[in-house]
Each structure stands twice: as C-alpha cells, then as structure tokens.
C-alpha cells in the first residue's frame, strides 16, 4: 500500500476530495532519508559555525531552573515509589507488620535511620511546597524575577525544615 501511494504521489502534489467537499493537498514523500537530512543539517551548521543549541553548556544554572528539574524529578520519584510499594504489597508474601519487624531486626544505627527518614521525607515536603508555589502562580501572582527567586528560596527552606521535622517523628 505504501509503495502504491508513493508511486502515485511521487510526481508532485495531488489533490483529493474528502466527504465534505473540501480540498486537501498531500505532500510528496521525501527523496532522501532522515539520516541524509540530519547529515546535511549538521554539515550546514558546522560550515556556518553555529553553536549546538539548546545545550546545557550554554546556559547559566539558576535557582528556577534547578527547582523546575527537581520538581519534576520528585514527582516522577514519588509516583514510582508509590507504584513500587503498591506492587510489593500485592506480590510479596506476608503482611506489613512482618516487614516492619524485619526492618527493626536489621539494627541500623540512629544516624542511618535519621538520614533515611529525611531522604524519604524531603521529596514529599519539596514536591508539596513547590506545588503550593505553582498553585500561587496559577492565580497569576509571583512571576516577577525577584519574586520567583524569593519564593524559590522560601520553598527550599520550608522543605528542609519540614523534612527535618518529619524525620524527627
């Protein structure tokens, strides 16, 4: 079927009629492959001495950029963690108290447990605080650059403090 369409369309553009009487034009398939087109693109860019953009090396890292990446990362991590926990609860034999006793029997030191609690609490606290920040942006407030930076610093500080408080529980 594809060869038939290509042989019909190769001479040029052709017009077809849809059921409502509107005319549509269909593009002719390219005579080159995607790899050849990409090679032409890079040869032209190198010949004109164009930078490779956008690229991480040409941007100066900023708080909003890092916070945006971290917000997305914590969202993906929390979704994946909850999904893994749910699958493990369905698949693994035994019940929750059994696995809780197993963790207690490993006898980790208090520093390790405090760090683990903080590591589990921080993504939740950060994603929640930054989500509230995004809800404020949805109202149309806080878009000026100094406000974006100020709210970013507030979100970071509140997230760390909330994580420490949750780790102390």
Explain what this protein looks like in three dimensions.
The chain has 169 residues and is mostly helical. The protein is 67% helix and 5% strand. It has a two-stranded antiparallel sheet. The longest helix has 29 residues, at 63-91. The N and C termini lie far apart (66 Å).
Topology of this structure?
Blueprint: H1 2-9, E1 14-17, E2 23-26, H2 34-47, H3 63-91, H4 96-105, H5 110-138, H6 145-168
Antiparallel strand pairs: 1-2
SSE pattern, N- to C-terminal: HEEHHHHH
Give the strand line-up of the largest sheet.
Answer: 1-2
Structural class of the secondary structure composition? mainly alpha
% residues in beta strands: under 5%
User: Which spans have pLDDT < 50 for at least 5 consecutive residues?
Assistant: 12-17
Helix proportion? 55-70%
Q: How many DSSP helices?
A: 6
Globular, elongated, flat, extended or rod-shaped: what is the shape? extended
Query: Got a strand count?
Result: 2
Q: Rg to the nearest angstrom?
A: 28 Å
Summarize model confidence as the mean pLDDT. 85
